[in-house]
Specification:
Elements (H helix, E strand, L loop, with lengths): L8 E5 L7 H11 L3 E6 L2 H13 L5 E3 L5 H14 L5 E4 L18 H22 L8 E6 L12 H21 L4 E8 L5 H4 L4 H11 L8 H12 L10 E4 L15
Parallel strand pairs: 1-2, 1-4, 2-3, 4-5, 5-6, 6-7
Bound molecules: nicotinamide-adenine-dinucleotide (NAD).
């Protein structure tokens, strides 16, 4: 049993810049020997991705807005032309109107509720349906990124907590659907990290400091830590884990209250 990804190839969705969680995963997977393809959202992100992709020996980048079925079809069509089969898929995508990631949850609007759940949860189904035929005959693994605001209340996380709860349930249902074809589906749940999406949540700095001071490991997750978990999941060593939410949060999720020294 090996944790090498030599001979494996896959698609990474959600690199915005070199602080993106998807980028931490891409670097770790490349270091483990995987071949990578990327999607990006719009031209500006594409320009930022180009040198990053080149640094991990990838020249496959395709524009894909997960709210737009036509770009999803084109992205997966282009990928299938190059690689008829893939071994893994990373979905690291979320969006909500920033103005609703602060203040009271009760003020969530219908429009932003629908949009947030569409981009942050439903899109995993659209992506999985298109990746499935490329994994059906050889097995594979799909993973998404979630946060513990799905099952506990985190101030300001608001509608994104509801979206992550839907995403985690989606992960379990996809795991059950695709399991008979040897395809595993999991979610990685890091603690707060300093990324573009992370910074959009009200009070992000305070949350970051709080988890650093109180997590059992007294530290926040790093890109390397999340990358290592993704490599393990995509490798043969992770071959019997499916439908799981794997915390990479220094143990923060087990706490019932802050550390005594911080009260
Ligand atoms: P990020 O801003 O670097 O990445 C978010 C990505 O989502 C971007 O690449 C953006 O282009 C993409 N995206 C948004 N809407 C899209 C659309 N319509 N079509 C295609 N792509 C779209 O931030 P990140 O923190 O690396 O976020 C990646 C994932 O990790 C998200 O699901 C996020 O909720 C999750 N996560 C983040 C943290 C954190 O603290 N940063 C913690 C736990 C989980």
């Amino acid at each position: 049993m090996s944790i090498s990804l030599a001979g494996k190839r896959g698609l990474i969705m959600g690199v915005a810049n070199d602080r993106s969680i998807a980028w931490g995963i891409a670097k770790a997977m490349h270091a483990a020997g995987a071949q990578l393809a990327f999607t990006f959202q719009g031209e500006a992100f594409g320009k930022r991705l180009e040198p990053l992709a080149a640094s991990v020996d990838s020249d496959f980048m395709v524009d894909c807005d997960v709210a737009d079925d036509a770009t999803l079809d084109r992205a997966f069509g282009d990928l299938a032309e190059r690689w008829p089969t893939i071994d893994f898929l990373v979905h690291a995508i979320a969006y909500s109107d920033k103005s609703e990631l602060t203040g009271r949850f009760i003020n969530t609007s219908r429009t932003n509720f629908k949009h947030s759940l569409d981009i942050s949860a439903y899109s995993f189904i659209e992506v999985a349906r298109r990746a499935y035929p490329m994994m059906r005959d050889n097995g594979g693994t799909m993973m998404t990124l979630t946060y513990q605001g799905s099952n506990r209340v985190v101030p300001n996380y608001n509608v994104m907590g509801v979206a992550k709860a839907a995403l985690e349930a989606t992960t379990r249902y996809l795991a059950n659907d695709l399991g008979p074809d040897g395809i595993r589906v999991n979610a990685i749940s890091p603690g707060p990290m300093k990324t573009l999406a992370g910074a959009a949540i009200g009070g992000a700095r305070k949350t970051y400091k709080h988890t650093e001071a109180n997590a059992p490991l007294r530290s926040n997750a790093t890109l390397e830590a999340v990358g290592g978990t993704a490599v393990w999941l995509a490798s043969d060593a992770g071959s019997f884990t499916s439908g799981e939410v794997i915390h990479v949060d220094g143990g923060y999720h087990v706490l019932g209250m802050p550390q005594a020294e911080n009260l």
